[in-house]
Amino acid sequence: MTDFTIASFNVKNLIGAEQEYYRFEKYTVEEHAWKEDWLADQVFTLNADIICFQEIFDQEPLQDVVDEADRRGKASNDDALPDRSKRYAKKAIFRKLAYAPYTDAGLAFAPNANDGGPGERRPGVAILSRFGFVGTPEIIQDVSPVIEIPFGLMGGGDGGAFRLNRLSRPILKAKIPVDGRVVTIFNCHLKSKLGEFMRPEGADFAPEADLLNYDAVGRALGSMRAAVRRMAEAWVLRRMIVDEIKQGNPVMVLGDFNDADNAVSSEIIAGELPFKNYAWMRRHDAQKANDRYIKEEAEQIRESIETLRLHSCEKLFVRRSLRDMVYTAAFGGVYESIDQILMSRHFIEGPDQIGEMDYFSVFNDHLTDGSHPEAPYNKLASDHGQIMAHLRLWDSG
Q1: Longest C-alpha distance within the chain, in Å?
Q2: Are residues 199 and 89 in the same domain?
Q3: In terms of pTM, does the model score above 0.70?
Q4: In terms of domains, do 297 and 324 share one?
Q5: Based on the domain organization, do 157 and 300 belong to the same domain?
Q6: Are residues 30 and 12 in the same domain?
Q7: What domain range includes position 357?
Q8: What is the pLDDT along the chain (397 residues), one digit of tens a residue?
Q9: DSSP secondary structure string, 119-178?
């Protein structure tokens, strides 16, 4: 058996010092040093074999964080691990304390196609893998051909269409070799809940941005635009997931979904939950009131749905451990999980199973929601908790 760990980490705006990423927003040299120090500590603590990062503006600052984590890890090993001359050197507790440097790890970075100049930067995503990659990781952001999603009116007729030609942020797809098997990893950061407001030509800002002339209806429309875009991006990701699973490939999806696991966008990515029994359901082609699916057809439907579903590591962990709360974000007094790790049934009970999840870790003690005495440091620390799944692959032989 082979054990490995995989984590998702939204770092919150990682960029070099004195670089304006959003309008009037930048880190001083001191602030950047504090942020790099904090991030390196988190990476060292995670010590994950695979980490999917979000909100990375440039690769170099991330590499600096990883290098600093390695320096701390090597120092920790020197202090905590007994040498081979000690009779207790092989005890399991010391294996748990050991840090494995990322010296030979692969680092793939996906810049954002919407990235602009100073004050108009847009972040991308990255994957760090101690196992390296099979082939070159793929960046998906421009949608070609352009997708036209049609809508129908409730009373019939043309309801218009939503046009999607580019995702708000890239999806990074990587194939990672683990103990003779290849797992397809998707790292994503879906459109946020921040409203999309239309700025009139020649105007300095959208009218809805003027809070002194508060436009409740206009701002609600902006939230609706953001939600539609997020769900459309979720569907693009779902299409790629289904394609991978149909090829027989184990799949894991990580990232900042900007929605809870019971939101529509998250359900689109994971796939629909099948009914326990379709034999009670009237057939799609029913000619009579009692035309229902037979038992064999009901089993076929369930299998078709189950094969393509993804499963939440968090939900599996909560069910097994009887824990009542996991959260990765806190804002306005609301604590929720918007960072997720989903996996195909290759890691769940089923005919295609190759392993299982052993444990699930959440690193969220730094989340303060602005009410903690150290809240000013929220600007520099991440506003997301980190999540990590502990997986066990069975012998391939």
Answers
A1: 81
A2: yes
A3: yes
A4: no
A5: no
A6: yes
A7: 2-271+308-393
A8: 899 999 999 999 999 999 999 999 999 999 999 999 999 999 999 999 999 999 999 999 999 999 999 999 999 988 887 676 665 555 556 567 789 999 999 999 999 999 999 999 999 999 999 999 999 999 999 999 999 998 888 777 788 899 999 999 999 999 999 999 999 999 999 999 999 999 999 999 999 999 999 999 999 999 999 999 999 999 999 999 999 999 999 999 999 999 988 899 999 999 999 998 899 899 999 999 999 999 999 999 999 999 999 998 988 887 766 555 566 676 656 667 788 999 999 998 878 899 999 988 988 877 765 554 554 556 688 888 899 999 999 887 5
A9: TB---EEEEEETT--SS--EEEEEEEEEEEEEEE-TTSSEEEEEEEEEEEEEEEEEEEEE
CATH classification of the domain holding 349: 3.60.10.10
Number of domains observed in the structure of the chain: 2
Same domain, 297 and 378: no
* Co-location of 295 and 151 in the same domain: no
Q: Are residues 229 and 291 in the same domain?
A: no
Exposure string for 73-110, b = 16+ CB within 10 A, e = fewer: beeeeeeeeeeeeeeeeeeeeeeeeebebbeebbbbbb
